[in-house]
Write a structure and sequence with these properties.
By secondary structure, this protein is an alpha+beta fold. The chain is built from 21 helices and 18 strands.
């Protein structure tokens, strides 16, 4: 008689436990066990517990290959999903084998689990496992399919509503409850104040301070007080939500006729625009990609969008200052160049219109498409291409937690009749066209931070904390990925013959980058080095880059004058005609303002089931080596946290978004 000791763990998610009957069957190279119910005295399978069971067989089953788990109803109780984390089996020979699951199991469902060390497809030897792997991938390809959202954009998962997604990739019940409660609390406050539904215009800027009484951050308060100041305005191009747009300027564009005389008063004494460009102190924001996109029609009249240009100067105090703004691409008498010496409200309006374009660009391109949509491509391709036993699936899957669910919800939130995109100055069609234009120009190098920084000439600009922290994080991620990949791929030949890995990158190239060779995205992998770089980019995107473009939305966008995605007034065509009344008329009405602001609260709230970057609560690897690599990764992240925290104590405006403790391990909202 042979005995197999089983440690069966139920997850600690809310409502993870079950009353249903659980059965197990063990499969080995020498046979299989009887279907055995796992039933101890008392209650089994309660949330967050591990039960110990024994399965007896007449003879040893040989090398253990598969564990089959089944769930049958208990009496006539209603459906009772079980979140099954893992089973650890100790064989009669003394081997201890991990079989990870980490998914919800419904009544009548069976799951077959692979255990032991991670295995690449060409390493499979036993016919049972080869057949199991083929069936697994066939099932996953039928479960996760591609859908075209819009021509020229990355493909998305084919589920139309979040409720259609498999249970194990949906939000936890606790997270769904917390999100709903946040929305409810915000809604109650805004209704009690009479702000929801009000089509009135704001009577004064100070009235906007009354939107939220309970929700404030140190940064949101700072923005409220300093949004008009030029040095703070300039700093936002480096360390706010969209730090990927400005470039070093060595020559003024022909369609932006800024003269020496215009900007001389704002430069260092005795200097000139030409000298400052030669010194590398002039930078350019150019929104030419937005030029010619028709804006949204509102109440029968088109709104106004400015595909403008902004010249910035790094002054001797190392402050980045806007020194010239042109609101449209083609210069004319009706398109003057605004300067800091113009009237306060003229200059303020010019800056607001630049920020209006920047907010739309940020939300549509740098946030939704370059992070959310591409993360979804990486995730769907992984779900379709990799077996769960593949080492890169084990590495990547924790970084895709909730991403498909969050994106499916976001498409309703952003694309629906009351969605942010629909209510923006460009409207849904315009925002989609902006994304289409941007995606056709997206390159692999632009998604890789070190190359991005170099291409934009921003290697040495001071006080660029996104660059400083981001490059350190990139290197830490790269070191971790290098260790894991080289452990499982000792040679380039192993990369070339891994058909699952090749399928993954092929699907990304085809469905994410639409077969665009000019993007530089590989259609296949040939070397270990190529795999390391690409996976580094993927993990950086879904952790660090998402934190940068997402987490500060309440900080910077809840104060609508600083960054409004919608402006009503036409941009000025003549200097000296504006007033504070003009600015108030340009801002959205009360109802639209508070709805935009409320959404920033939902996006920026911290929820209890957050998994910080580098934390891997799911025990997926059975080998000691990758576990040690994860520990080293976590230690390096901890050191960076200490360094960032120490530096931030010296800053008037701390930069926290790339502090590893503030970064989530995946895109979760």
């Amino acid at each position: 008689m042979a005995e197999y000791k089983l440690d069966v763990t139920t997850g600690d998610k809310q409502y993870a436990g079950t009353w249903d009957h659980i059965y197990v069957t063990l499969f080995g190279t020498e046979g299989q066990s009887e279907r055995t119910e796992l039933d101890n005295f008392g209650t089994d399978f309660t949330t967050g517990t591990t039960g110990n069971y024994t399965v007896k067989t007449n003879l040893s089953l040989g090398k253990l290959l598969l564990v089959k788990m089944e769930k049958d109803p208990f009496l006539f109780l209603p459906e009772d999903e079980w979140y099954f984390s893992k089973i650890v089996v100790t064989t009669p020979e003394g081997d201890v084998i991990l079989f990870p699951c980490y998914r919800w199991i419904s009544r009548g469902e069976l799951v077959e689990l692979r255990g032991g060390r991670a295995i690449k497809v060409f390493e499979e030897e036993h016919p049972l496992l080869i057949d199991h792997r083929e069936k697994e991938l066939k099932l996953k390809k039928s479960l996760y399919q591609w859908k075209i959202l819009a021509e020229g954009l990355p493909n998305v998962n084919h589920f139309n509503h979040p409720s259609e997604l498999p249970a194990d990739i949906r939000f936890s019940k606790s997270k769904s409850t917390e999100v709903d409660n946040t929305k409810m609390i915000i809604g109650i406050e805004l209704k009690l104040k009479g702000l929801i539904g009000s089509t009135e215009k704001w009577e004064s800027i100070d009235d906007l301070k009354k939107i939220f009484c309970w929700k404030k951050t140190t940064m949101s308060e700072y923005v409220t007080e300093h949004w008009k100041e030029d040095d703070f305005y300039g700093s936002q191009f480096l360390n706010a939500l969209n730090p990927n747009v400005i470039k070093r300027c060595s020559e003024i564009p022909q369609n932006f006729p800024v003269t020496e005389e215009m900007v001389k008063p704002f430069l260092a004494e005795g200097s000139s625009l030409r000298k400052e460009m030669e010194r590398g102190n002039i930078f350019l924001y150019d929104q030419k990609r937005m030029d010619g996109i028709p804006p949204r029609v509102n109440d029968g009249e088109p709104l106004h969008v400015t595909a403008g240009l902004c010249l910035l100067y790094l002054n001797p105090e190392n402050k980045l200052m806007p020194i010239a703004i042109q609101l449209h691409q083609q210069p004319s008498e009706q398109n003057p160049i605004y300067l800091p010496s113009d009237s306060e409200t003229d200059w303020l309006l010019a800056k607001m219109f630049i920020k209006n374009a920047d907010v739309m660009d940020h939300q549509a391109v740098y946030h939704l498409m370059n992070v959310h949509f591409l993360a979804e491509v990486y995730a769907v391709a992984a779900l379709r291409s990799f077996s769960v036993i593949h080492p890169l699936y084990k590495l990547l899957f924790p970084h895709f937690r909730y991403t498909l669910f969050a994106n499916t919800v976001a498409r309703i939130t952003l694309y629906g009749p009351d969605g942010v995109f629909t209510k923006s100055s460009l409207g849904l069609k315009g925002m989609t066209e902006l994304m289409r234009r941007a995606h056709s120009e997206t390159t692999y190098s632009s998604l890789c931070l070190p190359e991005n920084i170099t291409a934009r000439g921003l290697e040495s600009i001071p006080n660029f904390y996104y660059r400083d922290d981001g490059l350190k994080l990139w290197n830490i991620i790269n070191s971790f990925v290098k260790a894991v990949v080289e452990y499982y791929y000792p040679s380039d030949s192993e990369v070339c013959k891994d058909t699952e890995l090749q399928d993954w990158i092929s699907e990304i190239f085809t469905h994410g980058f639409l077969g665009n060779k000019a993007s530089g995205i590989p259609a296949g992998f040939h070397t270990v080095e190529e795999v390391i770089k690409f996976i580094t980019m993927v993990i950086f995107t879904v952790t660090a880059q998402h934190a940068v473009v997402h987490h500060g939305q309440f900080d910077y966008y809840s104060w609508m004058p600083n960054a409004s995605i919608l402006l009503h007034k036409a941009p000025p065509t003549t200097k000296g005609q504006s007033s504070m009344k003009t600015i108030l008329e340009a801002l959205p009405d009360v109802d639209t303002t508070v709805k935009f602001a409320a959404l920033t609260v939902v996006f920026s709230e911290k929820y209890t089931d957050t998994v910080p970057m580098g934390t891997y609560p799911e025990d997926r690897f059975d080998e000691p080596a990758p576990k040690q690599m994860i520990e080293k990764f976590q230690a390096q992240l901890s050191c960076l946290t200490e360094a960032i925290t120490t530096r931030n104590l010296q800053l008037e405006v701390p930069y926290t978004y790339l502090n590893p403790t503030e970064i989530e391990n995946s895109i979760t909202i």
